[in-house]
Amino acid sequence: MSEADAHYLVQLPTFRLGDQMWLTEAMTQPVGPYTPVVRAGDLLFVSGQVGIVDGALVEGGLDAEVTQAMANLAAQLESNRATVNDITKTTLFLTDMADYARVNELYIEALGDHRPARSCVAVAALPLGACFEIEAIASLR
């Protein structure tokens, strides 16, 4: 890897099979004690993304949060040489299931025609008071 590359490869000793993750200085810092992205073989596991920029929840409600969370997810994937088209499974977390239809519309806008497997669950609360969170698994094959 060249010094010009903005990525830093980190070996994760607690995982088997020589797993790796990519970190970039430009990525939003996690709001808890977890790794934003972990590579296990040909799979990327992207931790939950909420609509934050510079550590603060974006203003503008549901639409702004979903749009930013999806952008954060895309950025995490891109920093690991993947795209949203490589996603095989997502899990969505909503604090209000009344938002389900609108979230579907925004999800489609972000993913285009790509339709990975998906689960959506209602939760009592999310970090930073967010109303939406998404996590994903992507395949690098």
Detailed description of the structure:
- This protein has 141 residues and is α+β, with helices and mostly antiparallel strands.
- The chain is built from 2 helices and 9 strands, in the order E-E-E-E-E-E-H-E-H-E-E.
- The strands form 3 sheets. It has a 5-stranded mixed β-sheet with strand order 3-4-9-7-8. Strands 1-2 form a two-stranded antiparallel sheet. It has a two-stranded antiparallel ribbon with strand order 5-6.
- The radius of gyration is 15 Å and the shape is globular.
- The model is unreliable at 1-26 (pLDDT under 50).
- Any idea how many domains? 1
Strand content: 25-35%
Give the CATH H-level superfamily: RutC-like
CATH architecture: 2-Layer Sandwich
User: Radius of gyration, Cα only, in angstroms?
Assistant: 15 Å
Number of strands: 9
Name the strands of the widest sheet in spatial order: 3-4-9-7-8
Q: Structural class per helix/strand content?
A: alpha+beta
- Helix coverage percent: 10-25%
Please trace the helix and strand order, writing H or E for each element. EEEEEEHEHEE
By DSSP (H or I, 4+ residues per run), the number of helices equals 2
Average pLDDT level = 84
CATH class term: Alpha Beta
Largest sheet: 5 strands, mixed
Topology overview:
Layout (H helix, E strand, L loop, with lengths): L6 E5 L8 E5 L12 E4 L2 E7 L2 E2 L2 E2 L3 H18 L8 E8 L5 H12 L5 E6 L9 E8 L2
Parallel strand pairs: 7-8
Antiparallel strand pairs: 1-2, 3-4, 4-9, 5-6, 7-9
Helix pairs in contact: 1-2
